[in-house]
Amino acid sequence: MEQRIERIKKQLHSQSYKLTPQREATVRVLLEHEEDHLSAEDVYMLVKEKSPEIGLATVYRTLELLTELKVVDKINFGDGVSRYDLRKEGATHFHHHLVCIDCGSVDEIQEDLLGEVEAVVEQRWNFIVKDHRLTFHGICHRCSGKEKPEKENPENNG
Amino acid sequence: MEQRIERIKKQLHSQSYKLTPQREATVRVLLEHEEDHLSAEDVYMLVKEKSPEIGLATVYRTLELLTELKVVDKINFGDGVSRYDLRKEGATHFHHHLVCIDCGSVDEIQEDLLGEVEAVVEQRWNFIVKDHRLTFHGICHRCSGKEKPEKENPENNG
DNA sequence: TATAGAATTTATAATGATTCTAAAGTAAGA
DNA sequence: TCTTACTTTAGAATCATTATAAATTCTATA
């Protein structure tokens, strides 16, 4: 945890931004909730627990900054709010999501399954792929009664 | 055009909705701008040209209804507005998009490139895929100076 | 240490997309 | 024609997000 904060700090410094206490508090919340998909409001409320004096606008500004630095990814599942998702360290691509239309859960796929598809897109559409967003909508293993997949969140094979 | 409207009318009727003049005007705008990715406001302004008395709320309600019936897909490219995209007739999946981070253009891919990926997801994650959203961000052929792809919008091979 | 200047935060107001509400309009059946 | 349910309109309300102005903090330098 401390190491990751240290590295994010360096990343900020490299663009002449500072890791202020408010920004650090925000980053800590994101790290502590790595599995979740928090909205700005969610983050705000969690940050407030430990740093009650922080303002909502600051949280928004920090999240925007972190998005710019590609520390987090901003995503939208169509429910009217943006959500912020920490990138796995070293990951160069945006991970994928499984949204359950039954219970609303959101699981992550860290593996990059799009290698071949991107090659096709680059060749056939002459489009230089820089990033992607892929979300599947369907029924999760919990709702379908199927067994839990062996590795639901594999550590670092993206 | 008339045939498609007729079919959409039937689809509405099958759920005991009516194709009111306002709804029809909205559908016509969508059909006339099939290649575009219109926001609710865009649709509103286009509908007003021919039916000036229509209200914005009606357009919103109609788009919501059409989304429910899967006549259109509601998408979000991260620019703060929802956009509405007519489904190709017979298409069972949501088509893909190529968003240029340079000029902002949005091109479509009708082909379903995700067959294998979905099979992997179903098997490895025990997730029953019902639909998907796939958007690539990158540089389009116009901005990169590459030649235009042979078939930019293939007719109906999705 | 004092001080100027830049960056940052706070609190609040403003914006803009979307949804809600109440009243009026419309269509279909008895 | 009367009744009932559905639909639309206009405008108000809501909610997420962004902008603003004043206050605060940090940094560098004298």
Largest sheet of chain A: 3 strands, antiparallel
How would you classify the quaternary structure? homodimer
Q: What percentage of amino acids of chain A are in beta strands?
A: 15-25%
Q: Kindly state the number of beta strands of chain A.
A: 6
Question: What does it look like?
Answer:
Two copies of one chain form a homodimer. Helices cover 41% and strands 21% of the residues of chain A. Chain A has helices spanning 2-14, 21-32, 40-50, 56-68, 115-125, 141-144, and strands spanning 38-39, 72-76, 82-86, 96-100, 106-109, 128-139. In chain A, strands 1-3-2 form a three-stranded antiparallel beta sheet. A three-stranded mixed beta sheet of chain A has the order 5-4-6. In chain A, a hairpin with a 5-residue loop joins β2 (72-76) and β3 (82-86). In chain A, α2 packs across α3 (40-50). Chain A is globular. Residues 152-158 of chain A have low confidence and may be disordered. The A-B interface holds A 74, 76, 78, 98, 101, 107, 109, 113-114, 116-118, 120-121, 124-141, 144, 146-150, 152 and B 74, 76, 78, 82, 98, 101, 107, 109, 113-114, 116-118, 120-121, 124-141, 144, 146-150, 152. β6 (128-139) of chain A pairs antiparallel with β6 (128-139) of chain B, so a sheet runs across the interface. Chain A binds a DNA duplex (30 and 30 nucleotides) through residues 16-18, 20, 22-23, 39-41, 53-58, 60-61, 80-82.
